[in-house]
Amino acid sequence: MLKLINISKNYNPGSVNEICLFQNFNFTVEDGAFVSVVGSNGSGKTSMLNLICGSIGTDYGSIMVNNEDITRQKGYIRHRRIGRVYQDPAKGTCPSMTILENMSLADNKGKPFHLGRGVSKGKIEDYKVLLRSLNLGLEDKMNIQVGSLSGGQRQALALLMASMTPIDFLILDEHTAALDPKTAERIMELTEYIVSEKHITTIMVTHNLRYAVEYGSRLVMMHEGKIILDESGEKKKLIQTGEIMDLFNKISVECGN
Amino acid sequence: MALLLSVLEQGMIYGILALGVYITYKILDFPDLTVDGSFPFGAALSVRMIGEWGLPAVLTLPAAFFGGVLVGMCTGIIHVKLKVRDLLSGIVMMTGLYTINLWVAGTGYVPIFNKETIFDNEMVNSIVPSYLFQFKNVVIIFLITMAAKYLLDWYLRTKSGFLLRAVGDNDTLVTSLGVDKGLVKIVGLSIANGLVSLSGCLYAQQQRSFEISIGTGAVAIGLASVIIGTSLLRKITLIRVTSSVIIGSIIYKACIALAMYAGVSANAIKLITAVLFLIILVIGMDKKRR
Q1: Closest Cα to residue B274, out of B198, B215, B221?
Q2: CATH assignment of A2-254, given 2.130.10.10, 1.10.3290.10, 3.40.50.970, 3.40.50.300?
Q3: Under a CB-based contact definition with an 8 Å cutoff, are residues B231 and B287 in contact?
Q4: Residues in chain A with pLDDT < 70?
Q5: CB distance A79–B169 less than 8 Å?
Protein backbone atom coordinates (compact mmCIF):
# COMPACT_ATOMS: atom_id res chain seq x y z
CA MET A 1 0.00 0.00 0.00
CA LEU A 2 1.19 3.50 -0.86
CA LYS A 3 0.42 6.41 1.44
CA LEU A 4 1.17 10.07 0.99
CA ILE A 5 0.61 11.61 4.42
CA ASN A 6 0.23 15.37 5.05
CA ILE A 7 2.47 16.28 2.15
CA SER A 8 3.38 19.94 1.70
CA LYS A 9 5.41 21.16 -1.22
CA ASN A 10 6.29 24.68 -2.31
CA TYR A 11 8.06 25.55 -5.52
CA ASN A 12 10.57 28.46 -5.53
CA PRO A 13 10.28 29.04 -1.77
CA GLY A 14 11.18 32.52 -0.60
CA SER A 15 10.96 34.06 -4.07
CA VAL A 16 8.24 36.13 -5.73
CA ASN A 17 7.43 33.07 -7.83
CA GLU A 18 6.66 30.90 -4.79
CA ILE A 19 3.90 28.45 -5.56
CA CYS A 20 2.26 26.27 -2.96
CA LEU A 21 1.55 23.05 -4.81
CA PHE A 22 0.49 20.79 -1.97
CA GLN A 23 -0.74 21.69 1.51
CA ASN A 24 -1.45 18.76 3.83
CA PHE A 25 -2.07 16.51 0.86
CA ASN A 26 -3.14 12.93 1.60
CA PHE A 27 -3.45 10.12 -0.90
CA THR A 28 -3.63 6.36 -0.41
CA VAL A 29 -3.43 3.64 -3.02
CA GLU A 30 -4.47 0.13 -2.04
CA ASP A 31 -2.52 -2.87 -3.35
CA GLY A 32 -3.76 -4.05 -6.72
CA ALA A 33 -5.63 -0.82 -7.50
CA PHE A 34 -5.48 0.79 -10.94
CA VAL A 35 -5.92 4.51 -10.29
CA SER A 36 -6.55 6.94 -13.13
CA VAL A 37 -5.67 10.52 -12.26
CA VAL A 38 -7.05 13.45 -14.25
CA GLY A 39 -6.87 17.20 -13.79
CA SER A 40 -5.97 20.41 -15.56
CA ASN A 41 -2.40 21.51 -16.21
CA GLY A 42 -0.72 22.58 -12.99
CA SER A 43 -3.12 20.63 -10.80
CA GLY A 44 -0.23 18.61 -9.34
CA LYS A 45 -0.68 15.26 -11.12
CA THR A 46 2.86 14.86 -12.42
CA SER A 47 4.30 16.50 -9.29
CA MET A 48 2.54 13.84 -7.24
CA LEU A 49 4.17 11.14 -9.36
CA ASN A 50 7.53 12.89 -8.99
CA LEU A 51 7.09 12.95 -5.21
CA ILE A 52 6.33 9.23 -5.20
CA CYS A 53 9.31 8.43 -7.43
CA GLY A 54 11.67 10.72 -5.54
CA SER A 55 12.36 13.01 -8.52
CA ILE A 56 11.40 15.92 -6.24
CA GLY A 57 11.53 16.07 -2.46
CA THR A 58 8.80 16.94 0.01
CA ASP A 59 8.89 19.98 2.32
CA TYR A 60 6.77 18.25 4.98
CA GLY A 61 4.94 14.98 5.31
CA SER A 62 5.89 11.42 4.60
CA ILE A 63 5.58 8.80 1.90
CA MET A 64 5.00 5.25 3.08
CA VAL A 65 5.17 2.05 1.05
CA ASN A 66 3.92 -1.03 2.89
CA ASN A 67 4.47 0.81 6.20
CA GLU A 68 8.06 1.67 5.29
CA ASP A 69 8.90 5.37 5.27
CA ILE A 70 10.61 6.14 1.94
CA THR A 71 10.41 9.95 2.19
CA ARG A 72 14.19 10.37 2.39
CA GLN A 73 15.06 7.45 0.12
CA LYS A 74 16.92 8.38 -3.06
CA GLY A 75 15.00 8.25 -6.32
CA TYR A 76 17.07 5.50 -7.93
CA ILE A 77 16.56 3.23 -4.91
CA ARG A 78 12.79 3.80 -4.99
CA HIS A 79 12.78 2.91 -8.67
CA ARG A 80 13.95 -0.61 -7.85
CA ARG A 81 10.33 -1.35 -7.01
CA ILE A 82 8.67 1.19 -9.25
CA GLY A 83 8.24 0.97 -13.01
CA ARG A 84 7.64 4.31 -14.70
CA VAL A 85 6.58 5.11 -18.24
CA TYR A 86 6.85 8.72 -19.35
CA GLN A 87 4.91 10.81 -21.84
CA ASP A 88 7.95 10.97 -24.13
CA PRO A 89 8.56 7.50 -25.67
CA ALA A 90 12.29 8.38 -25.84
CA LYS A 91 12.55 8.46 -22.03
CA GLY A 92 11.79 4.82 -21.43
CA THR A 93 14.33 3.24 -23.76
CA CYS A 94 17.90 3.67 -24.99
CA PRO A 95 17.83 4.72 -28.64
CA SER A 96 21.40 3.71 -29.55
CA MET A 97 21.01 0.22 -28.13
CA THR A 98 19.17 -2.68 -29.73
CA ILE A 99 15.80 -4.03 -28.56
CA LEU A 100 17.59 -7.07 -27.16
CA GLU A 101 20.08 -4.90 -25.24
CA ASN A 102 17.25 -2.71 -23.91
CA MET A 103 15.34 -5.77 -22.73
CA SER A 104 18.45 -7.08 -21.06
CA LEU A 105 19.02 -3.72 -19.33
CA ALA A 106 15.48 -3.81 -17.97
CA ASP A 107 15.87 -7.43 -16.91
CA ASN A 108 18.88 -6.45 -14.78
CA LYS A 109 17.04 -3.69 -12.97
CA GLY A 110 18.69 -2.79 -9.68
CA LYS A 111 21.82 -4.86 -10.34
CA PRO A 112 24.65 -2.41 -11.00
CA PHE A 113 28.20 -3.06 -12.18
CA HIS A 114 27.89 -6.71 -12.93
CA LEU A 115 30.67 -7.86 -15.21
CA GLY A 116 28.69 -10.74 -16.61
CA ARG A 117 27.61 -10.86 -20.23
CA GLY A 118 25.25 -7.96 -21.04
CA VAL A 119 22.78 -10.22 -22.80
CA SER A 120 22.35 -13.66 -21.29
CA LYS A 121 21.89 -16.04 -24.20
CA GLY A 122 19.52 -18.23 -22.21
CA LYS A 123 17.13 -15.31 -21.80
CA ILE A 124 16.75 -14.40 -25.46
CA GLU A 125 13.85 -16.81 -25.98
CA ASP A 126 12.08 -15.39 -22.90
CA TYR A 127 12.46 -11.88 -24.31
CA LYS A 128 11.04 -13.05 -27.62
CA VAL A 129 7.98 -14.45 -25.88
CA LEU A 130 7.46 -11.17 -24.04
CA LEU A 131 7.86 -9.14 -27.23
CA ARG A 132 5.45 -11.43 -29.05
CA SER A 133 2.81 -10.55 -26.46
CA LEU A 134 2.97 -6.95 -27.73
CA ASN A 135 1.84 -8.18 -31.12
CA LEU A 136 3.93 -5.57 -32.92
CA GLY A 137 6.40 -7.90 -34.64
CA LEU A 138 9.27 -6.63 -32.47
CA GLU A 139 10.39 -10.19 -31.72
CA ASP A 140 11.77 -10.34 -35.28
CA LYS A 141 13.67 -7.04 -34.91
CA MET A 142 15.58 -7.75 -31.74
CA ASN A 143 18.90 -6.64 -33.15
CA ILE A 144 17.82 -3.29 -34.52
CA GLN A 145 18.42 -0.05 -32.66
CA VAL A 146 15.46 1.21 -30.66
CA GLY A 147 16.00 4.71 -32.09
CA SER A 148 14.72 3.47 -35.44
CA LEU A 149 11.35 2.32 -34.02
CA SER A 150 8.17 4.40 -34.18
CA GLY A 151 6.95 6.29 -31.11
CA GLY A 152 4.22 3.71 -30.48
CA GLN A 153 6.62 0.78 -30.76
CA ARG A 154 9.04 2.49 -28.41
CA GLN A 155 6.31 3.24 -25.89
CA ALA A 156 5.11 -0.37 -26.02
CA LEU A 157 8.67 -1.50 -25.42
CA ALA A 158 9.06 1.02 -22.59
CA LEU A 159 5.88 -0.33 -20.98
CA LEU A 160 7.15 -3.88 -21.27
CA MET A 161 10.58 -2.91 -19.87
CA ALA A 162 9.04 -1.02 -16.95
CA SER A 163 7.02 -4.07 -15.92
CA MET A 164 9.50 -6.85 -16.72
CA THR A 165 10.88 -7.34 -13.24
CA PRO A 166 8.80 -7.66 -10.06
CA ILE A 167 7.65 -4.18 -9.04
CA ASP A 168 5.29 -2.77 -6.41
CA PHE A 169 3.96 0.08 -8.54
CA LEU A 170 3.59 1.00 -12.16
CA ILE A 171 3.57 4.75 -12.72
CA LEU A 172 2.18 5.90 -16.07
CA ASP A 173 2.75 9.58 -16.69
CA GLU A 174 0.52 10.58 -19.63
CA HIS A 175 2.07 7.66 -21.48
CA THR A 176 -0.30 7.89 -24.45
CA ALA A 177 -0.24 11.68 -24.83
CA ALA A 178 2.45 11.75 -27.53
CA LEU A 179 0.88 9.02 -29.66
CA ASP A 180 -1.69 9.07 -32.46
CA PRO A 181 -5.21 7.90 -31.45
CA LYS A 182 -4.90 4.42 -32.92
CA THR A 183 -1.50 3.76 -31.34
CA ALA A 184 -2.67 5.29 -28.06
CA GLU A 185 -5.61 2.86 -28.07
CA ARG A 186 -3.25 -0.07 -28.65
CA ILE A 187 -0.95 1.08 -25.82
CA MET A 188 -3.94 1.36 -23.48
CA GLU A 189 -5.01 -2.20 -24.35
CA LEU A 190 -1.46 -3.35 -23.65
CA THR A 191 -1.45 -1.44 -20.38
CA GLU A 192 -4.61 -3.14 -19.23
CA TYR A 193 -3.29 -6.53 -20.32
CA ILE A 194 0.01 -6.10 -18.45
CA VAL A 195 -1.60 -4.63 -15.32
CA SER A 196 -4.24 -7.36 -15.06
CA GLU A 197 -1.81 -10.15 -15.98
CA LYS A 198 0.75 -9.14 -13.37
CA HIS A 199 -1.65 -7.61 -10.82
CA ILE A 200 0.49 -4.49 -10.54
CA THR A 201 -0.71 -1.54 -8.47
CA THR A 202 -0.91 1.23 -11.04
CA ILE A 203 -1.23 5.01 -11.02
CA MET A 204 -2.00 6.46 -14.45
CA VAL A 205 -2.02 10.19 -15.06
CA THR A 206 -3.90 11.06 -18.23
CA HIS A 207 -5.53 13.97 -20.02
CA ASN A 208 -7.76 11.59 -21.91
CA LEU A 209 -10.97 11.53 -19.86
CA ARG A 210 -12.34 8.55 -21.76
CA TYR A 211 -9.33 6.42 -20.82
CA ALA A 212 -9.70 7.55 -17.22
CA VAL A 213 -13.33 6.45 -17.21
CA GLU A 214 -12.91 3.23 -19.20
CA TYR A 215 -9.74 1.90 -17.60
CA GLY A 216 -8.83 1.34 -14.00
CA SER A 217 -10.64 0.60 -10.77
CA ARG A 218 -10.53 4.09 -9.31
CA LEU A 219 -10.77 7.60 -10.72
CA VAL A 220 -9.23 10.62 -9.07
CA MET A 221 -9.53 14.23 -10.21
CA MET A 222 -7.03 16.78 -8.94
CA HIS A 223 -7.27 20.54 -8.84
CA GLU A 224 -4.76 22.99 -7.39
CA GLY A 225 -3.01 20.30 -5.38
CA LYS A 226 -6.19 18.81 -3.95
CA ILE A 227 -8.28 15.77 -4.76
CA ILE A 228 -11.73 16.98 -5.76
CA LEU A 229 -13.15 13.68 -6.98
CA ASP A 230 -12.26 10.18 -5.85
CA GLU A 231 -14.50 7.34 -6.96
CA SER A 232 -13.90 3.60 -7.03
CA GLY A 233 -15.80 0.34 -7.27
CA GLU A 234 -19.41 0.47 -8.46
CA LYS A 235 -19.56 4.26 -8.24
CA LYS A 236 -16.61 4.53 -10.59
CA LYS A 237 -18.25 2.15 -13.07
CA LEU A 238 -21.30 4.41 -13.23
CA ILE A 239 -19.29 7.52 -14.12
CA GLN A 240 -19.71 8.75 -17.68
CA THR A 241 -17.09 10.67 -19.63
CA GLY A 242 -19.60 13.54 -20.02
CA GLU A 243 -19.91 14.00 -16.26
CA ILE A 244 -16.16 14.20 -15.84
CA MET A 245 -15.99 16.61 -18.76
CA ASP A 246 -18.62 18.86 -17.10
CA LEU A 247 -16.70 18.87 -13.83
CA PHE A 248 -13.49 19.53 -15.70
CA ASN A 249 -15.04 22.48 -17.55
CA LYS A 250 -16.46 23.85 -14.31
CA ILE A 251 -13.09 23.93 -12.55
CA SER A 252 -11.46 25.33 -15.68
CA VAL A 253 -13.94 28.25 -15.65
CA GLU A 254 -13.23 28.77 -11.95
CA CYS A 255 -9.53 29.07 -12.62
CA GLY A 256 -10.12 31.27 -15.66
CA ASN A 257 -8.64 28.75 -18.17
CA MET B 1 59.44 4.08 -44.03
CA ALA B 2 60.48 5.88 -40.86
CA LEU B 3 57.69 8.40 -41.40
CA LEU B 4 55.13 5.63 -41.91
CA LEU B 5 56.27 3.82 -38.77
CA SER B 6 56.20 7.05 -36.79
CA VAL B 7 52.63 7.74 -37.99
CA LEU B 8 51.54 4.23 -37.02
CA GLU B 9 53.25 4.38 -33.64
CA GLN B 10 51.86 7.77 -32.68
CA GLY B 11 48.53 7.04 -34.33
CA MET B 12 48.05 3.95 -32.19
CA ILE B 13 49.34 5.61 -29.01
CA TYR B 14 46.90 8.46 -29.52
CA GLY B 15 44.36 5.79 -30.52
CA ILE B 16 44.30 4.65 -26.88
CA LEU B 17 43.72 8.28 -25.86
CA ALA B 18 40.95 8.44 -28.46
CA LEU B 19 39.32 5.35 -26.91
CA GLY B 20 39.15 7.29 -23.65
CA VAL B 21 37.75 10.35 -25.39
CA TYR B 22 35.26 8.08 -27.18
CA ILE B 23 33.90 6.98 -23.78
CA THR B 24 33.44 10.54 -22.52
CA TYR B 25 32.44 12.31 -25.72
CA LYS B 26 30.40 9.68 -27.53
CA ILE B 27 29.13 7.40 -24.80
CA LEU B 28 28.78 9.69 -21.77
CA ASP B 29 28.19 12.89 -23.76
CA PHE B 30 30.59 14.59 -21.34
CA PRO B 31 33.07 17.14 -22.71
CA ASP B 32 35.96 16.05 -20.51
CA LEU B 33 38.90 18.45 -20.53
CA THR B 34 40.65 16.40 -17.83
CA VAL B 35 42.29 14.62 -20.78
CA ASP B 36 44.72 17.55 -21.23
CA GLY B 37 45.97 16.81 -17.72
CA SER B 38 45.61 13.03 -17.51
CA PHE B 39 47.64 12.43 -20.70
CA PRO B 40 50.79 14.12 -19.30
CA PHE B 41 49.95 12.58 -15.91
CA GLY B 42 50.53 9.09 -17.32
CA ALA B 43 53.71 10.36 -18.97
CA ALA B 44 54.97 12.01 -15.78
CA LEU B 45 54.25 8.92 -13.73
CA SER B 46 56.10 6.66 -16.15
CA VAL B 47 59.26 8.82 -16.37
CA ARG B 48 59.33 9.10 -12.58
CA MET B 49 58.98 5.35 -12.17
CA ILE B 50 61.59 4.56 -14.81
CA GLY B 51 63.98 7.45 -14.20
CA GLU B 52 64.10 8.17 -10.51
CA TRP B 53 62.74 4.99 -9.00
CA GLY B 54 64.37 2.63 -11.51
CA LEU B 55 61.32 0.39 -11.65
CA PRO B 56 60.77 -2.07 -14.53
CA ALA B 57 59.07 -0.29 -17.44
CA VAL B 58 56.31 -2.87 -17.63
CA LEU B 59 54.99 -1.69 -14.26
CA THR B 60 54.39 1.77 -15.66
CA LEU B 61 51.46 0.47 -17.73
CA PRO B 62 49.17 -0.63 -14.88
CA ALA B 63 50.43 2.26 -12.71
CA ALA B 64 49.58 4.84 -15.39
CA PHE B 65 46.19 3.24 -16.05
CA PHE B 66 45.16 3.13 -12.40
CA GLY B 67 46.63 6.59 -11.80
CA GLY B 68 44.43 7.84 -14.62
CA VAL B 69 41.47 6.00 -13.11
CA LEU B 70 41.96 7.99 -9.90
CA VAL B 71 42.19 11.24 -11.87
CA GLY B 72 38.97 10.43 -13.74
CA MET B 73 37.31 9.47 -10.50
CA CYS B 74 38.16 12.92 -9.07
CA THR B 75 36.60 14.61 -12.12
CA GLY B 76 33.52 12.44 -11.69
CA ILE B 77 33.22 13.21 -7.98
CA ILE B 78 33.61 16.95 -8.61
CA HIS B 79 30.85 16.76 -11.24
CA VAL B 80 28.47 14.32 -9.57
CA LYS B 81 28.90 14.91 -5.86
CA LEU B 82 29.87 18.60 -5.84
CA LYS B 83 27.45 19.31 -8.72
CA VAL B 84 29.99 21.29 -10.77
CA ARG B 85 29.13 21.44 -14.49
CA ASP B 86 30.83 18.87 -16.73
CA LEU B 87 33.06 21.29 -18.63
CA LEU B 88 34.09 23.12 -15.47
CA SER B 89 34.90 19.88 -13.62
CA GLY B 90 37.34 19.03 -16.41
CA ILE B 91 38.85 22.52 -16.35
CA VAL B 92 39.36 22.35 -12.56
CA MET B 93 41.10 18.97 -12.87
CA MET B 94 43.16 19.98 -15.90
CA THR B 95 44.41 23.10 -14.10
CA GLY B 96 45.22 21.23 -10.91
CA LEU B 97 46.93 18.41 -12.78
CA TYR B 98 49.44 20.83 -14.34
CA THR B 99 51.04 21.33 -10.92
CA ILE B 100 50.58 17.69 -9.92
CA ASN B 101 52.30 16.59 -13.14
CA LEU B 102 55.25 18.89 -12.38
CA TRP B 103 55.46 17.40 -8.88
CA VAL B 104 55.28 13.84 -10.18
CA ALA B 105 57.83 14.36 -12.96
CA GLY B 106 60.08 16.66 -10.94
CA THR B 107 60.48 19.31 -13.64
CA GLY B 108 58.81 20.37 -16.87
CA TYR B 109 61.19 18.31 -19.00
CA VAL B 110 62.54 14.91 -18.01
CA PRO B 111 64.57 12.84 -20.49
CA ILE B 112 64.88 9.06 -20.05
CA PHE B 113 67.34 8.40 -22.89
CA ASN B 114 69.57 5.93 -21.06
CA LYS B 115 66.84 4.10 -19.25
CA GLU B 116 65.04 0.88 -20.10
CA THR B 117 61.60 1.48 -21.49
CA ILE B 118 58.79 -0.83 -22.49
CA PHE B 119 60.18 -0.68 -26.05
CA ASP B 120 63.83 -0.96 -25.20
CA ASN B 121 64.72 -3.40 -22.48
CA GLU B 122 66.70 -6.59 -22.10
CA MET B 123 63.80 -8.92 -22.62
CA VAL B 124 62.44 -7.24 -25.74
CA ASN B 125 65.91 -6.81 -27.22
CA SER B 126 66.68 -10.50 -26.70
CA ILE B 127 63.45 -11.65 -28.37
CA VAL B 128 63.44 -9.33 -31.38
CA PRO B 129 66.09 -10.08 -34.04
CA SER B 130 68.29 -7.07 -34.83
CA TYR B 131 67.05 -6.74 -38.44
CA LEU B 132 63.50 -6.23 -37.11
CA PHE B 133 64.50 -3.64 -34.53
CA GLN B 134 62.85 -0.80 -36.40
CA PHE B 135 59.47 -2.56 -36.14
CA LYS B 136 59.86 -3.28 -32.45
CA ASN B 137 58.02 -0.16 -31.25
CA VAL B 138 55.14 -0.46 -33.67
CA VAL B 139 54.54 -4.12 -32.77
CA ILE B 140 54.59 -3.46 -29.01
CA ILE B 141 52.30 -0.45 -29.40
CA PHE B 142 50.00 -2.51 -31.62
CA LEU B 143 49.75 -5.26 -29.00
CA ILE B 144 49.03 -2.82 -26.17
CA THR B 145 46.52 -0.87 -28.27
CA MET B 146 44.72 -4.07 -29.26
CA ALA B 147 44.67 -5.23 -25.64
CA ALA B 148 43.11 -1.89 -24.61
CA LYS B 149 40.62 -2.06 -27.48
CA TYR B 150 39.52 -5.65 -26.81
CA LEU B 151 39.23 -5.05 -23.08
CA LEU B 152 37.05 -2.01 -23.73
CA ASP B 153 34.97 -3.98 -26.27
CA TRP B 154 34.52 -6.69 -23.67
CA TYR B 155 33.56 -4.21 -20.95
CA LEU B 156 31.01 -2.47 -23.14
CA ARG B 157 29.29 -5.82 -23.67
CA THR B 158 28.98 -6.54 -19.95
CA LYS B 159 25.97 -5.59 -17.83
CA SER B 160 27.99 -2.75 -16.32
CA GLY B 161 29.06 -1.65 -19.82
CA PHE B 162 25.41 -1.60 -20.88
CA LEU B 163 24.69 0.85 -18.05
CA LEU B 164 27.58 3.03 -19.16
CA ARG B 165 26.21 3.10 -22.70
CA ALA B 166 22.72 3.81 -21.37
CA VAL B 167 23.69 6.71 -19.10
CA GLY B 168 24.90 8.93 -21.94
CA ASP B 169 21.98 7.98 -24.10
CA ASN B 170 19.18 8.35 -21.57
CA ASP B 171 20.13 8.91 -17.95
CA THR B 172 16.45 8.95 -16.92
CA LEU B 173 16.29 5.29 -17.88
CA VAL B 174 19.31 4.46 -15.73
CA THR B 175 17.56 5.98 -12.70
CA SER B 176 14.42 4.04 -13.66
CA LEU B 177 16.54 0.90 -13.60
CA GLY B 178 17.32 1.54 -9.95
CA VAL B 179 20.93 2.51 -10.57
CA ASP B 180 22.73 5.66 -9.40
CA LYS B 181 23.48 7.44 -12.69
CA GLY B 182 26.15 9.54 -10.98
CA LEU B 183 28.10 6.43 -10.04
CA VAL B 184 27.90 5.14 -13.61
CA LYS B 185 29.30 8.47 -14.84
CA ILE B 186 32.16 8.28 -12.34
CA VAL B 187 33.00 4.76 -13.53
CA GLY B 188 32.94 5.93 -17.16
CA LEU B 189 35.19 8.92 -16.48
CA SER B 190 37.58 6.71 -14.51
CA ILE B 191 37.98 4.17 -17.32
CA ALA B 192 38.30 6.96 -19.90
CA ASN B 193 41.06 8.78 -18.04
CA GLY B 194 42.77 5.48 -17.25
CA LEU B 195 43.09 4.89 -20.99
CA VAL B 196 44.24 8.46 -21.62
CA SER B 197 46.89 8.16 -18.92
CA LEU B 198 48.04 4.82 -20.36
CA SER B 199 48.39 6.55 -23.71
CA GLY B 200 50.51 9.29 -22.10
CA CYS B 201 52.70 6.63 -20.48
CA LEU B 202 53.40 5.01 -23.86
CA TYR B 203 53.97 8.40 -25.50
CA ALA B 204 56.64 9.42 -22.98
CA GLN B 205 58.47 6.12 -23.42
CA GLN B 206 58.25 6.27 -27.20
CA GLN B 207 59.61 9.84 -27.14
CA ARG B 208 62.02 8.90 -24.33
CA SER B 209 61.15 12.08 -22.50
CA PHE B 210 58.42 13.90 -20.62
CA GLU B 211 57.47 17.44 -21.42
CA ILE B 212 54.83 19.30 -19.45
CA SER B 213 53.23 20.78 -22.57
CA ILE B 214 52.38 17.43 -24.22
CA GLY B 215 48.87 17.59 -22.81
CA THR B 216 47.98 20.86 -24.51
CA GLY B 217 45.40 20.05 -27.15
CA ALA B 218 45.32 16.33 -26.29
CA VAL B 219 41.54 16.41 -25.99
CA ALA B 220 41.27 18.06 -29.43
CA ILE B 221 43.42 15.30 -30.96
CA GLY B 222 41.25 12.69 -29.26
CA LEU B 223 38.02 14.33 -30.40
CA ALA B 224 39.31 14.72 -33.95
CA SER B 225 40.26 11.03 -34.02
CA VAL B 226 36.87 9.97 -32.70
CA ILE B 227 35.00 12.12 -35.20
CA ILE B 228 37.19 11.06 -38.15
CA GLY B 229 36.90 7.40 -37.19
CA THR B 230 33.20 7.33 -36.47
CA SER B 231 32.16 9.42 -39.48
CA LEU B 232 34.50 7.95 -42.11
CA LEU B 233 34.07 4.32 -41.15
CA ARG B 234 30.49 4.26 -39.88
CA LYS B 235 29.19 2.59 -43.03
CA ILE B 236 31.61 -0.33 -42.67
CA THR B 237 29.56 -2.45 -40.32
CA LEU B 238 32.22 -5.13 -39.90
CA ILE B 239 34.50 -2.73 -38.05
CA ARG B 240 33.73 -2.10 -34.40
CA VAL B 241 33.52 1.52 -33.38
CA THR B 242 36.57 1.14 -31.12
CA SER B 243 38.63 0.04 -34.14
CA SER B 244 37.24 2.99 -36.13
CA VAL B 245 38.42 5.37 -33.41
CA ILE B 246 41.95 3.96 -33.49
CA ILE B 247 42.01 4.11 -37.30
CA GLY B 248 40.70 7.70 -37.01
CA SER B 249 43.66 8.54 -34.83
CA ILE B 250 46.11 7.04 -37.35
CA ILE B 251 44.46 9.02 -40.18
CA TYR B 252 44.69 12.18 -38.08
CA LYS B 253 48.38 11.63 -37.33
CA ALA B 254 48.98 10.91 -41.03
CA CYS B 255 47.40 14.27 -41.93
CA ILE B 256 49.65 16.08 -39.46
CA ALA B 257 52.70 14.19 -40.70
CA LEU B 258 51.86 15.10 -44.30
CA ALA B 259 51.51 18.75 -43.32
CA MET B 260 54.93 18.66 -41.68
CA TYR B 261 56.38 16.76 -44.64
CA ALA B 262 55.01 19.50 -46.89
CA GLY B 263 57.11 22.00 -44.98
CA VAL B 264 54.76 23.34 -42.34
CA SER B 265 56.76 24.50 -39.32
CA ALA B 266 56.56 22.43 -36.14
CA ASN B 267 55.52 25.60 -34.31
CA ALA B 268 52.42 25.82 -36.51
CA ILE B 269 51.26 22.30 -35.67
CA LYS B 270 48.83 23.35 -32.93
CA LEU B 271 47.24 25.84 -35.31
CA ILE B 272 47.00 23.16 -38.01
CA THR B 273 45.46 20.85 -35.40
CA ALA B 274 42.88 23.48 -34.48
CA VAL B 275 41.99 24.20 -38.13
CA LEU B 276 41.81 20.49 -38.96
CA PHE B 277 39.64 19.93 -35.89
CA LEU B 278 37.32 22.75 -36.92
CA ILE B 279 36.99 21.33 -40.45
CA ILE B 280 36.20 17.87 -39.05
CA LEU B 281 33.61 19.33 -36.67
CA VAL B 282 31.91 21.33 -39.43
CA ILE B 283 31.85 18.31 -41.77
CA GLY B 284 30.53 16.16 -38.91
CA MET B 285 27.73 18.65 -38.16
CA ASP B 286 26.91 19.02 -41.85
CA LYS B 287 26.49 15.24 -42.14
CA LYS B 288 24.23 15.25 -39.09
CA ARG B 289 22.03 17.99 -40.60
CA ARG B 290 21.62 15.95 -43.74
Answers
A1: B221
A2: 3.40.50.300
A3: yes
A4: 112-113, 252-257
A5: no
Candidates B177, B186, B190, B234: best to mutate against A (most CBs of A within 10 A) is B177
| B176–A105 CB contact, under 8 Å | no
B163/A117 Cβ within 8 A: no
Residues B184-241 have pLDDT tens digits of: 999 999 999 999 999 999 999 999 999 999 998 899 899 989 988 988 777 776 788 9
Smallest Cα distance from A5 to chain B, Å: 24
Contact at CB, A76 and B172, closer than 8 angstroms: no
Rounded distance between C-alpha atoms, residue B149 and residue B195, angstroms: 10
Burial B157-181 (b: 16+ CB within 10 A, else e): ebbbbbbbbbbbbbbbbbbbbbbbb
Q: Which residues of B touch A159 (CB under 8 A)?
A: none
B-chain residues near A74 (CB < 8 A): 180
- Residue A35: CB partners within 8 Å, gap ≥ 6? A29, A202, A203, A204, A216, A217, A218, A219, A220
CB A155 within 8 A of CB A89: yes
Q: Minimal Cα–Cα distance from A32 to chain B, Å?
A: 21
Chain B residues whose CB is inside 8 A of the A172 CB are none
ipTM: 0.87
Please give the C-alpha separations between residue B238 and each of A51, B234, B241, B243, B285, in angstroms, as whole numbers.
46, 10, 9, 10, 24
Contact call for B160 and A83, based on CB within 8 A: no
Contacts of B109 (CB under 8 A, 6+ apart): B209, B210, B211, B212
Domains of chain B: which residue ranges? Answer: 2-214
Name B249's Cβ contacts closer than 8 Å, sequence gap at least 6: B11, B12, B14, B15, B17, B18, B221, B222, B225, B228, B229
Mutation target vs B (from A105, A146, A159; most B CBs, 10 A cutoff): A105
pLDDT in tens, B234-287: 777 678 899 999 999 999 999 888 888 888 887 887 788 788 778 877 876 666
- Give the CA-trace dihedral at B277, B279, B284, B286, to 10 degrees: 150
Distance of CA A31 to the CA centre of its chain: 15
